[in-house]
Design a protein that fits this description.
0% strand; single chain; mainly alpha
């Protein structure tokens, strides 16, 4: 999971409502969201197929690929102004980069120490963690439906964490929860700095991860060609360009729509490892995950219904 809003693993949209001029691009944005979420869902499967590289080696090469991919996107988007665009992220961007770097490291630790299903189901609670942090740091009001959904999601996450301790994967579940908190913190920073393009934070976070991984494994960074290609596929193609597509799509869709489409990643990731390598979640993990995903889905659908009413009352409909 790498997305930037989560709304997340991902950059929050520039506004809660799509601009009227964005309407012709909504279909294109929806297609990008589906492709992005489906692509990012293969991360767990790729990690399970890496044969010999350890977590720090994976972090190092995956980050190098992410850095190159985001650099290409920035050069394509800003041409000669790419470097100045990176500088514009400022102190807020550095804090955001730190959080997304911590989330990236925690994500691999989580999957290496628990099932892909437990990790992804826990990450699906990111919208609610974000809402809680936004209430504290941005003074954003919590609607009753969001509060009830947060309580239900918290119960689901608790069930999965407790189940993890019961089967010896408690550390992985705790790391998944820490990853979700870091992603949520990243999202809050992005939402409070909507005037800044935070895409460069992906590249800066990649540099941070690569630096930490180099310090941890500078004496042994040699891995097999197969493992290196899988790291570059994950970091460069899936994470780099997948998140790039998400950022473009987020400019034309409302937050609830983004949340619903992002559920594809959380639902598909466990499915791939179950179908292709027979990694099945426990019954309790499925129960907790189902509670979290249902909470997110219901909350997003209610929000979409409210958005539709507001559009009919006077705002131009994007449909």
């Amino acid at each position: 999971m790498d997305k930037q809003t989560f709304s997340g693993d991902t950059v929050a949209p520039q506004s809660e409502m799509p601009a009227p001029e964005a309407a012709p691009r909504r279909g294109f944005a929806i297609a990008l969201m589906i492709i992005s979420s489906a692509a990012l869902s293969f991360g767990g499967l790729i990690l399970r197929n890496i044969g010999e590289a350890d977590a720090w080696q994976i972090n190092f090469y995956r980050s190098l690929a992410l850095i190159m991919a985001v650099a290409l996107i920035l050069v394509f988007q800003y041409r000669g102004a790419a470097v100045s665009q990176i500088r514009k992220v400022g102190r807020a961007g550095l804090w955001a980069s730190f959080l997304i770097a911590a989330a990236g490291i925690g994500f691999i630790q989580a999957i290496n120490n628990t099932t892909v299903a437990n990790t992804m189901f826990t990450l699906s609670a990111i919208p609610f963690i974000t809402a809680a942090l936004a209430r504290v740091f941005l003074n954003e009001a919590l609607k009753p439906v969001t509060l009830y959904a947060m309580i239900a999601a918290a119960i689901g996450v608790t069930v999965m964490v407790a189940d993890g301790f019961g089967i010896g994967s408690g550390y992985g579940n705790i790391m998944a929860l820490g990853t979700a908190c870091c992603f949520a913190g990243f999202t809050v920073i992005v939402r409070s700095n909507r005037h800044i393009d935070m895409l460069p934070t992906l590249m800066i976070s990649g540099l941070m991860i690569a630096a930490v991984a180099f310090i941890m494994r500078f004496d042994d960074l040699g891995i097999t060609f197969k493992d290196m290609m899988l790291c570059f596929l994950w970091g460069g193609v899936l994470s780099g360009f997948g998140n790039g597509m998400f950022i473009v799509a987020s400019r034309h869709l409302v937050a609830a729509e983004l949340t619903l489409f992002m559920l594809l990643e959380f639902a598909l990731a466990p499915l791939w490892v179950w179908l292709l390598i027979a990694e099945a979640p426990t019954i309790w993990a499925l129960a907790g995950g189902a509670l979290v995903i249902t909470s997110v889905t219901v909350r997003a659908l209610i929000e979409l219904k409210g958005t539709g009413r507001r559009l009919r009352r006077g705002r131009p409909s994007p449909l």
